[in-house]
Amino acid sequence: MNNTYIDLLIDNLLTSGTIAASEICSADMDLNDVGSHGRTLLMVAACEGMHETVDTLVKHGASVNAVGTSGMTALHEASSNGHALTALRLLELGATVDRETDDGVTPFMCAAAWGHVDVAKLLLCHGANSEHADQTGATAMDIASEKGEQEFVEFLNSFKKT
Fold first, then answer.
1. What are the b/e assignments for 39-72, b being 16+ CB within 10 Å?
2. 63 — phi, psi (to 5°)?
3. What digits encode the pLDDT tens for the residues 6-49?
4. Residues spanned by the domain of 15
5. Which of 23, 50, 78, 85 gets the most CB atoms within 10 Å of its CB?
6. CA distance 135 to 152
7. What's the CA gap between 77 and 45, in Å, rounded?
8. Interatomic CA distance for residues 144 and 75, integer angstroms
């Protein structure tokens, strides 16, 4: 299917804050298709913290581990944007906690980049590797330090001591 219909559904999702099951069921489409901006519908819902929409999309065939351009997943999106409830729901639905992007970035590293300690704690409880390094050799600690996310750095330091 071309990106036009996916993009239309993404626009509707962002405008209305929800997506109707009838919109999904009436279309002959793959919910894992990527729109012109490199994201699936599930990735957009996760980015916006729409955990109920996440449930609807997965129920109708969206994969929690589908990747967009650069290897991002819905869990990367939820983690980057601080949506702990959405991240939890994705994990409950089977999202891979340490899935790497094309550059080796994990959802935990995304949480670190934006200082989302609550999401980081959740990911750690689900087995995230806090020491993982991306293709440049940077870890979550390096990323949080570089971005000035001092609260995250302090959290990670205290986590390492336990």
1. bbbbbbbbbbbbbebbebbbeeebbbebbbeeeb
2. -90, 130
3. 788 877 778 777 666 556 655 567 889 999 899 999 999 999 99
4. 3-161
5. 78
6. 21
7. 9
8. 18
Instruction: Compute the C-alpha angle 94/49/59, nearest 5°.
Output: 45
3-state SS string over the chain?
CCHHHHHHHHHHHHHHCCCCHHHHHHCCCCCCCCCCCCCCHHHHHHHCCCHHHHHHHHHCCCCCCCCCHHHCCHHHHHHHCCCHHHHHHHHHCCCCCCCCCCCCCCHHHHHHHCCCHHHHHHHHHCCCCCCCCCCCCCCHHHHHHHHCCHHHHHHHHHHHHC
Number of structural domains (the chain) is: 1
Distance CA 84, CA 63 (A): 19
